[in-house]
Amino acid sequence: MSPEAFHTLLIEHPKVALSLMVRMATIIRTSNERIMDLSTLGANNRVYAEILRLAKDDVNDDNTAKIKPIPIHGDIASRVSTTRETVARVLNDLARKGLVKREKDSLHILDMAHLSDMVEQFQME
User: Fold this and answer.
1) Residue among 56, 57, 55 nearest 101 (CA)
2) Which positions ≥6 away from 102 have C-beta within 8 Å?
3) Is 72 exposed, middle or buried (0-12, 13-18, 19+ CB in 10 A)?
């Protein structure tokens, strides 16, 4: 679509323009959060923050959440600028602490508040 046609579309259809602005604001907010995480958090805490982001759409009233399908370590590593091995180590540590539980097709976060506190603790320092 040419810039002129796009401009005309936005002027003639304000609902499209508003929808686009809402979507762009969401993208900008998410990008800002990730940039802050990359610049202020260590690798472990970036993994924690990414797990929280992935789980945010499926939080239960009992402070648990489920990420389905189970996230691929390499994908998480790419998003948080670390290695697959670091992601595996962090998830194993969280499992040993009883904060996450792996099942064949999902990752259960057993204490969202505690995981969130772990991230916030380092964001404030």
Assistant:
1) 55
2) 70, 91, 95, 108
3) exposed
